[in-house]
Amino acid sequence: MVAGQRKGSAGRSKIDGVIFGIGKYEARLEIRPRQLYTMRKEKRGMLVKERVHSRGKRRYKLLFMALPFMALVLMFNYLPVVGWLYAFFDYIPGVPLLECDFVGTKYFKMLFTDVNTARVLKNTLIFGAIGVLVSPLPMLFAITLNEVKCGPVRRIVQTFTTLPNFISWVIIFSLAFAIFSSDGLMNGILQAFGKEIDPATAYNVMADGDAVYWFQSCLGLWKSLGWSSIIYLAAIAGIDQELYSAAMVDGAGRLRCALHVTLPAMSETYFVLLILSIGNFLNTGFEQYMLFKNPMTGPNIEVLDLYVYRIGLEMSDYSYGIAIGIMKFIVSAALLLFANILSKRVRGNSIL
């Protein structure tokens, strides 16, 4: 294939065309520079369209994969909001809602005069405050586990600390009762070491109202410590190893590397989780406290979620129970916004 050229008046070379053929049969295809530019531009545009189309198909596939989970969130988190209407009516089970008496904010006013509400709110705040105070422990545990250089030991420790998260509270209650009750393993060990223990007066931490706060907090921490540390281990894996190399060149040991490299790199993850935990300050759950509740520990172990369960389902006072749930949501949202604004002003960034 030979390209023919000709000289222009200004001395420049211009592509006049392309000569192609076999033997004596040949033809000239006139392709001027502007036509070449147009053809290349059209080809580039087609390639861009194909890439955009393929990316769009991939995005739609991901969207379709997320649709079942979005439907679950809509079903269990947003549709129940319609039930908030019951808080403004004197609802009687079996009677249509519109036939019940409209009472307005009556049940919301009861929140400020009910003695039990103040008591369960105090318990919830104490458990929530303890949870915030011990929130750095999973991060410290992840840092400590990362410093273990023996791979098998690290994996064994991580496995045994993560497994309790998958154990139900019913089984944990059975284990705690077998260990800490008046005739449990703890008192049996004390008797084996020569201490005389009367079964009638033996110490039973399960029935000690004063030990509720620290005992239940320790059980919750034991159950969630390994699971909560996974996200910090993932954050440690994402730290640039050159930072450790530079710190070691400057003479830093393992402790100083953990303090000045690992800890600052994990601070962003910690503060995001801390803000989210403050938003869930009042959402302590009820399974744990419902199982460990008894007449001796009841006044100190009953939290808002358990109180709503007792008022709404056991006493069938649905309107008052829903009113408590609404106020809990409002307070939780306010705490989340306050923590987010405080983080924005103090640290310069936030999650919202």
Topology record:
Blueprint: E1 2-7, E2 13-22, E3 25-29, H1 33-78, E4 89-90, E5 101-102, H2 106-110, H3 115-133, H4 136-146, H5 151-162, H6 169-180, H7 185-192, H8 212-228, H9 230-237, H10 241-249, H11 254-279, H12 287-292, H13 298-301, H14 304-314, H15 318-347
Antiparallel strand pairs: 1-2, 2-3, 4-5
Report what the structure shows:
This protein has helices at about 35-80, 105-110, 115-135, 135-145, 150-160, 170-180, 185-190, 210-230, 230-235, 240-250, 255-280, 285-290, 300, 305-315, 320-345, and strands spanning about 1-5, 15-20, 25-30, 90, 100. The strands form two sheets. A three-stranded antiparallel beta sheet has the order 1-2-3, with no helix packed on it. The two termini are about 65 Å apart. The chain is mainly alpha-helical. The chain contains 15 helices and five strands. The radius of gyration is 34 Å and the shape is globular. Helices cover about 65% and strands about 5% of the residues.
Which tags fit this structure?
three-stranded antiparallel beta sheet, 352 residues, mainly alpha
Oligomer: single chain
Largest sheet: 3 strands, antiparallel
The backbone outline, from C-alpha atoms, is globular
Low-pLDDT segments, ≥5 res: 1-32
Order of strands across the biggest sheet? 1-2-3
Please state the structural category: mainly alpha
